[in-house]
Design a protein that fits this description.
Shape: globular
Structural class: mainly beta
Number of helices: 1
Helix content: under 10%
Strand content: over 45%
Strand order of the largest sheet: 1-8-7-4-5
Amino acid sequence: MRILIFSMILLLQTGMVFAKMINPPVEIKVVPGDGGGNSFNVTWKPPAGEKIAAYFYKLDQQPMTNWTTKTSIKNLRVSGSGLHRLYLAASDNEGNVSAYQAVEFKLETKTPKGGKFTMTPPTAYQAGGSPGIIAVGDVSGDGLNDVVSANYYDNNISVFIQLPDGKLATQTTYPVNQGPFGVGIADMNCDGLNDVIVGCAAADTVHIFTQNEGGTLTQTMVFRSERGPYGLAVGDVNGDGRNDIVLSNSGAASISIFTWVPDIKESYDYLLGSFKGCDSLTMQKQGKDIFAHIVYAAGPTTYWLSIGDINGDFKEDIAAVNYSNSTLNVYFQQPDRALLSLGALQTAGGNPFNVCLGDINGDGLNEIVASGGPLSIFGRKDNISFGLIGTTTTKEGRSGAVRIGDVNDDGRADLINSNSETISVHLQDNNGKLHPPVHFSTGRGPGGLAIADVNNDGLNDIITGNISDNNITVLHPAWEK
């Protein structure tokens, strides 16, 4: 059942990079779609007096933007019961953007009431050698979530297309350079189709695959990176509505931002502001855009990172973990869109391998969770300070990957971490506390972890990339009577 709530919110925090802020789209409407109970159709009208080239939007707290030249979105799919929020903005031919206009709507799924939450046994799909990191998103253009794994030892990626029956198709592989590790899915060229981005840690390169009609991919761009780009995340970290690539460079003690901005004065102002606080900045002209590679200092062996709004200002920030000295670096996006480092924060567990963001205490703000020994939870300690606010134990004393998302369909974000052959699910209760973890079997060495709906039932599933078994597994939520 779908319930629509037309709650309109104008967010003025976006678009300040550019010379002028244009007017946002108007008369946004959300109605049920025809792609299943979890799909919605969205329509709007262009703002008066503006020459709109395209629109960009994002759903809930995702840091990535999606683009369209139309004034509608057909069969927008969401997962998880409760309120959802769509953010929509406009862009003109000169690269100026509007503030986000937001609309709220509600999804209620048909989950059993009163049953005990559990997970189904894992369904395995053969991948390549050592599929350490996975990403989930639509890479075939049908609106359904697909899965991509980076196969470190085979020097390729595996693409698993979601089929109409909710299963995943046999893998299709695409070659890349040595040691692919980080992988992301987002629209990088603003054509309305998701692309696949791969970081090759052993070759110091980043590869972009664009989506073709019919669900295939073509490698279109390769970039040099700093040394050892193990971590990769994608999102809009400078407020221009376009997706940027962010890397954690394990061998260079740094993070990198790959960004494309329009060739206008205000972009140079943004880059100058970034240059004042970064370690290095290189630029080159690419068509009508400026491509910039911005490097910020981090700690030793910067292994993984995550993007999201940490301080509640509707700007995307960055959190990165440093394996060798067990610290966390936080980079806040400033009003001029440059990043300001909070400095290194000590984690509770040694050698943090992974980090993620999400609201796991119900305060409306994203917390940061770093793996290692006990899971370290960072957040707002009061109205001023930010730091370590808690820890939670894991099954084996150490943890691998960590992710946050609603897996039991109660509208609250839960915490999931991987172990040597299992995952641990820490459910959030209605008081913002985490229950003791419940453990579920996966394959061996589940280094990759994702939370998303990969069978189109409106419920989030858990997907793991199992390094020792060379496969991925999917666990679906279930309720015992």
